[in-house]
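To: structure desk
From: M.T.
Subject: fold request, one chain
Message: Could you run this one when you get a chance? Sequence is below, nothing fancy, just the single chain.
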Amino acid sequence: MNSKGGNAMTKKLRFKMYKAGKLWVTAGVALAALGMSAMLGQNVQAATTAVVAPSNKVSTPVTKTATIVQGTFKAPVYDAVDGQVTGKYLAEGTDWKVYQDNTDAFGTTWYNLGGNQWIKGTGVIVDAIPDTYKSSTRVGFVSGAASLTVYTAPGVAGQKTGQILWPASSWHISASVITSDKQLWYRVGTNQWVKANGMVLGTIQSAKGTATVTYIPGYSIVVWGKADGTENTGLKLPNGTSWLVYGKATVGNHVYYQLDTNQWVDGAYVKFQARH
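Reply: Done. Structure tokens follow.
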């Protein structure tokens, strides 16, 4: 199961954590204020003149907070509903005060951030608890017996994508956010979010060395296909044998060592010797 951070999931909904012993890297997200007048937490002033919506639009005064959750791209700011891009962009994970809702003739939702500053509702949610959006480089393991439903966005704006995460599968978590109902969400791909229930977080890192099996004389240990000790590969390693290690996964307080692609052994039954 091969994955790159932020890309959409494949139809098989699986990916490799490593390739040739190399760990994927996720770019960090810069949370920049960009000099806009409506950044949450600032002393925001309303526009000096009222914002008048076009006659074929429906505009409603509101007081909300918009959180940018779309990832991959920054959200452009427009000078009006269906207007022109101003050249300003809102970074992923930032929170903004909203003064008006507006639905255009095509059914697209727009949010006014003050004055002539508008953003599309795509990739934006208004039910996130402010300051709870976090970028992540963790790995999520579906630990329960049930699969997890994938949504286009967290919270009330999210729609089912038709995809699911199967039990015992592992996923790169690029971001998390908490919605107003206290639900924690994880992003597993572009516009692909799941509820955190039923998923355990872990970390995977590169590790070079040798693992020697320290089990029971005359017996062998199982080689697992997943970095959380699930999916038996059918392979076994005899007690006393030594194997090269290329990676290390930590799930809770438990450690697994990677011997090859989709080949992991339980750290409780091996002695690891690092090589430099």
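Reply (cont.): The CA atoms of residues 258 and 264 lie 4 Å apart. Let me know if you need anything else for the meeting.
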